[in-house]
Amino acid sequence: MSDRLDGHKVRDPRDLHARVEVQLDQAAEELTRRLAGGVSYQVVRETVVEAYRQLASRAKVHGFLPILAARLAQQRLQGAP
Questions:
Q1: 37, pLDDT greater than 80
Q2: pLDDT band for position 8 (50/70/90)?
Q3: Contact in structure between 1 and 15 (CB atoms under 8 Å)
Q4: What span, in angstroms and rounded, lies between the C-alpha atoms of 17 and 43?
Q5: Fewer CB atoms near the end CB (10 Å): N or C, the chain?
Q6: Predicted confidence band at 31 (pLDDT cuts at 50, 70, 90)?
Q7: Helix axes 13-34, 41-56, angle to 10 degrees
Q8: So where are the chain's domains?
Q9: Top-level CATH class of 2-77?
């Protein structure tokens, strides 16, 4: 959903949030596969979301945060330092 304001395209922030949620779901699904079932999807999803929130609180650019959150979650779930 979008509209125009002074000739500029304006996106509905709810749409942007929904897209991030889909990306986090996809990242959690992929990470669950990579962990070969050693960790439940729910635990992986919660870890990805927690990592995303932590990164987003300091980030100036948010475009790659779902991917970075998945990597951080993977490190945490595999016990990397």
A1: no
A2: low
A3: yes
A4: 21
A5: C
A6: very high
A7: 130
A8: 2-77
A9: mainly alpha
